[in-house]
Structure formats: C-alpha cells, structure tokens
C-alpha cells in the first residue's frame, strides 16, 4: 500500500531509469523525421520497455517469489512509459514555448495504479489535471499520450478534469473520491497536483470519515455478494472475493481516510494496528499479490478467479509440494484460505476501531436511563467478568482470560444464550490469548460442558461456532478440528472448505431441530423430536469429516477421534460409541440410497444389518440430510430426499420385524388391491389382465399414484395401437422431470433412451426399469430440471421424449446426435480420476451389480449403456449419481438367460469393455476390481 517502489531486482534499459532523458536522446536522434515516424519510433521503444519490464517482473516472481515486488516493478515500468509520453508530448510534439496560466498539466496515477502496484493484466488509470477548462493545447497533449498507450494495447482508463472538477465530482461520487484518495503524481506541474491534494483534504475529506466508511463497507457487502458470500468458496475470486485483495484495499482506504496516513506502516503509530497485526496485513497482501500476478501471467489476461484448472498451475508456480496426505494444490489452497481468514480478522479490527472513534456521548437523561438498563442486562449475563459495550458482549478487562481461561469458552456460551454479538476488541483479545488453551483447559470438565452446550444449542450454534473458528479458538480447543481449518478438497462436489462444511452442517441440523425445515425435509423434521441421542447426533455431525486430508479412510480415522473425544466432552460410553458408529458410517445411507436398487430385498436386508437399531436409522437419516445439504448450493434436491425416505421406510420395516417372504407377498397383494380400487372405472377383466402384466418387484418399488398413471398410460397406448409411446411429467418437490417410455424390450433400449437424453442435454439422475410379462419395457427416466417454470420444462422434456420415440422407431441415429453434442470436457485436464469397475454378485440375490465410477463427461451414461448392450447384458435397473466431476453409475444386470454373471472370463470381458469407455476419452484406466462371493 506504499507509494514507494522496491529497488529493481534486475537491470532494465535506460528508459526506465530516466525516461525523460531517454526520450530526449531517442527523439533527438530522429530529428529529421516527421511526427508520425517519431511516434512510431517512440511506440517501438516503449513496446520494448514494456516487454523487458514484464520479463523482469516475472523473473522477480520466479526468483525471489515476491508478489509485491513484481507488482511494484510493473507499476514502475508503467510510470516510465507515462513519463516518457508526457515528455514527448510537451517537449517535442506540442511544446508550449511561452505557456500561459491555462497551459499547465499534471499527470497522476489513480486507482490501483495510484497505489504503485499493477498486476500483469491490470488497467492503467490516469488523471490529466488542468488548472481550469481544457484548452486546445491540453487536448492535443492528452491525445498524443493516449494514442500510443492504445497502440501498445494497454487497457487505459482516463479522466480529464480541472481542480474544481475533481473537488465537485469527489463530493458527489464515492468512486471518484476513492480514486483521488490514492492519486499519485507522475509528471508535469507538481504545484498543480499539490493544490488538488490540499483542496481534496480540506474540502472533501475533512469531517466526512463516517460517511466514507459507511459507503465503503456497503460497497464491500455488494461486491462480496456478487463474488460469493463465503470466504471459503473453493474457487475464490482473488481480487473481489471475501478475504481478497479488494478487502485489504478497502481497509486501507478507510484507514487512510479516517487517520490521514499515507503508508500502512503508519497505522501502528496511529493505534489502529499493533506490530503483529501490521505483519499480518503485509503478509496477506504479499501472498495475495503473488497469487494474482501468477494468475495473470499463466492465463495471459486479467483473470481474478482461482478456478480449479488454475489452482494446480499456481500451486506449482509458487512452489508447493505434497505433504501428509495432502496434494500440493490442497496445501496451497489451505494457505490461501488462512490468508482470507486473516483479512477477515483485520476487517473486524478496523471496523471496531472506527466504530469506537465515531461514537458520540448521549444526552444526560438518555445516558442515565441507558446505564440503568445496561446494568440490568449485565447482571443477566451471570458472570462478573463480562459486560456490554453498546449492545455487544465484552470482557470487563483485558485480564479476564488470564484470570480464568474457561472464560474463553464462557464468552461464546453467553453470546449463544443471550443472542449477543461479541465486541471486536474482545474477539481480538481471544485471538491474542490462544496460548492459554493448554491441555489442562482442553480436559477441564467445565470447559467441555460449556463447549457441548454451545455445540448443541437450539439457537444459532452455526453463528457462534463460526465466530469461535474465526478467532482461532475452535481449532485450539479441538486440535483435530484445527487440522481441517481452511482445508479444501480438490473436487467439484464440495463447495466449501472442510471446517466451513462442518459448521454449516450444524446449522442445518439446528434448523431441523427447531422445526423450520418441515416443508423441505418432512421425514427428518418428523423423527427429530423422537431421537434419544440428540447430543450424540450433534457431536457426530461436528466430527463426521474431521479426519479429512489424512492418508487413511476419513470415516475410520474419524471414528477413532470420536472415541477419544467423546469422554472428554462428557459423553457416556454408550453415547460415545453411537457417535463413533455414526462417523464411521456417515456415508452409508447416501451411498445405498443413490446407487443401490431399493426394490431389491437384499439391498434393504444388508443395510438393515449394518444399522441394526431403529434409533441408529433415525440418527443416520438426519445426519445424512444435514451433511448433503451443507455441501453447497444446489447439491440437495427433492430427488435425493425421496430416495432417502424410501430407504428409511423400507429399512424400518425390516428392523421392526417385517419383510419376510410372506410379508412381501402380502404387501404385493395389498398394493394390487389398492390399484384395483383406483381403477374402479375399468371392468374387472381389464383390471385383472393389467395386474397380471407386472412382476412382483414392480409392486414393491412403485408407489400407488405412479401405478395408476402407468396403468392409464399403457391402456391409452394400447387403444391407439401403439407399442412405442412416451409421457412426461414434472415433479417440483423432487426437482426432477420424469419421462416414462413404453417400448418393446431389447438389450439396447436403455442406451437409446440415455442417448436421446444426452443429445438433448438432459441430465439423468435415476432410471426405473421394468419389463412386463408380455415383453414390453416400461422405463421411467428422471432428469434434473433445467427451468423453474413448468411450461418451459415441459417443452424441453417434450423435445427429449420426441427424440426418444424417433430413435426407437429408427428415424434418427442416436450415436450421431450424441457425437455432435459431445465436446472434450474442459475439466478433463484439471481432475485426474482413475475409472473403477466393481463387479459384485453378493449385493443382490438375482442380479450382478456393476458399479462404474470415473470422470464424468457429456454422453458418459449413453456410452456405458451402449457398451453393456453390446455385451448382451440385460439391465434390470440403473442408479445414477454425480458428485461434482465424479460419476458413479450402478447397473443391476443379468445375462440373456436372466442369470448372474459368474464366469471369470465373462467378468474380465465386461471389465475390459467398460474401461475402454473411459479410455476412449483419453482417461487412464488404472483401477478396477471384481468382487465375487465364495460360492460363485
């Protein structure tokens, strides 16, 4: 933030050292040439200067690895270019031999360039300052400077103003005021520039610090909302995101405006920062500039978003290496998020100081009344070490934590209980007192009781936990949590860092607990009041991903942490074991619901054997909902909720003694009777003939409403003499659109349907596949919605359905349509994911289960179903799940005789064929395994 540039680390041409002398020699040597030739010569010299300057700036970044030195070098090079152009314009092209009072000009850098820092792709913002209105001479000088800048392909922003213009416009516009706040003299009339600065301070800045601060903070909120509200988004904006460079700029603008300092180091003397906080500011600024400069150099443009494909490259450029189970890119991004957190801490410090500075004494009577009310509220806090500053919770003095380190936890307990904000000075003191969190405090029963109360509070535990995390207390008190602070997972599925995900999950659970999510999560809302282990549920959710980033399976490692931490937190042995079980199995319900056939009795029996008790089933259902919901925006949808509810209800039946063969037959009979009642307008003969067309699994899997729709759909198709037909329907609650397809059954049917969906841009999330006793296939394909409005969505679905019908009739070639739509996935180079094929004959009694996982791409499901069709396998059901860049597709298959695939040679052929689907797109088929029961 200083105007002073670092001493150049590498030599540059003479033009940089003394641009005015360099221009004089250059143009003197071209004395006999005309103006156009001189301009061309000048542009060529400046082009060389810029190229050399960029090369030397990159060398600084690669050698000393200093982002700020790189930014200062680029600014110094640009200074030389502007000074040289001013000298050429006023000394050679439009000299004023006997200048009048109006023929004066000052050229200043403003905006980011005014701070003396430029990134490789930054805009160059200039102010051409005149004493009065612009003259013809002034217009010629400005043009003769701007045209070469444009010829040099520089993104130049400029303004031409008189001193009076600057003052008038700065009063009216905060953006202009901010730009002038950082104006830096480059060339021309220094007296004129100094006059503008003097008047700006006296006529604009004086007495307006509060208004400027409020405007800048409001502007920051708007900017952050645009870039993403969390500083822990996994593809952050380095310039405009929360915790990015613009936040540091805003802090310095406010501090400079309020404290009238010119350099950030002066803020220590002004009392705003202590030495440690100044170092934090400078360290954060250096790191963010290093990242930003590399982003610009790598992309060759002003790229500010640290996207997945650039994270690896920037990490490698800066020099990060892998360590302790973390990839280089994950270590780099953790460093980035820790810096973003530091920037957030600095923001709170500055805001608190300015708030205290701007408070005014109230009138005597109001002050007395307020004091009386405040004393009552302070007594209500229940502890003498705490008080209120304004409406915020604070400690009575700076030794409160030294006297009793448990007060570090009590602070947040009271804030949670009384719904109070914590005064920034007190949050700052917490961070400075983290050394008090020793092993003794971690094992103090009262401290752990308080922490458990905070974690399980019904009133906004997410807010308080986030405050604890931002102060550094949470990671110190629970060191295993400290290991995942600012840790990102390098994939497209998780939107937040691990610590932010865990805290958000607690927030979702608290909403379910309070009953505010009934419409979105009806089952979780219904069973939450009935759980016996509420505390265990909160602790398990807080710990479920706490072992991420370790070489071993995070679920198993997390369970060990839970067994160690449970007794410390005061949980009973039974509660501790429940927590450990939930952590170890926290992915099971989601995996089974999304990738297994829930109509297969073996699926439910296996899951029930894992869960064992109804209480665990309840806890796991609620934990799974909160976990998925906290992954990120758009990850949770009604379709996943429907799958989880189906799995819950089916498993509940087994755990309460149902699902025997007799019970299953009785359930089929009841479902058939219910449908008979729904079809009361049919003759008895028609009803019985229709019911005989379906095998038992159909009656178990399909709910009554859909059974009736299917019956009427088949009846209408039959009356119309059609064996191929489609119908579409939207489902707002589940967030899907259903395409039901009727066609003669054959092995390649699902491939044709998935191909038509892929060609039309339909993202398939599930497929229910049934064959009738008379050889027709009745398939229901669920695709995720593309439009909010039903009429738009139905038009799109109608196009997909029409394509399916035409393909089934042989009127179009699906392979050609898919090939036209398919493009190389842009993330293919960013994410490396070895495909994996699991062939399992244990998961189902009647089918072989093929689980295929690998890098997702457009048309992948079509390619897989086509390959399975060519292998002469019948697909009984398909379950499609996508986790960011990873696709996990599960197919229940048999051979053409409806038998399982038990031959080793046949399994190897299946494996080879499916791996080739990924190799076709250049994927590396590095991993596959086959699971076969001992008897097979």
UniProtKB/TrEMBL annotation:
GO terms for biological process: regulation of nitrogen utilization. Uridylyltransferase (UTase) activity is inhibited by glutamine, while glutamine activates uridylyl-removing (UR) activity. Residues 498-620 form the HD domain. Residues 1-380 are annotated as: Uridylyltransferase. The keyword Repeat applies. InterPro entries: ACT-like_dom_sf (IPR045865), ACT_dom (IPR002912), HD/PDEase_dom (IPR003607), HD_domain (IPR006674), NT_sf (IPR043519), PII_UdlTrfase/GS_AdlTrfase (IPR013546), Polymerase_NTP_transf_dom (IPR002934), UTase/UR (IPR010043). Pfam families: ACT, GlnD_UR_UTase, HD, NTP_transf_2. It catalyses: [protein-PII]-L-tyrosine + UTP = [protein-PII]-uridylyl-L-tyrosine + diphosphate; [protein-PII]-uridylyl-L-tyrosine + H2O = [protein-PII]-L-tyrosine + UMP + H(+). Its cofactor is Mg(2+). GO terms for molecular function: [protein-PII] uridylyltransferase activity; phosphoric diester hydrolase activity. Its EC number is 2.7.7.59, 3.1.4.-. Residues 738-815, 849-928 form the ACT domain. PANTHER family: BIFUNCTIONAL URIDYLYLTRANSFERASE/URIDYLYL-REMOVING ENZYME, BIFUNCTIONAL URIDYLYLTRANSFERASE_URIDYLYL-REMOVING ENZYME. This is Bifunctional uridylyltransferase/uridylyl-removing enzyme. The lineage of its organism: Bacteria, Pseudomonadati, Pseudomonadota, Alphaproteobacteria, Hyphomicrobiales.
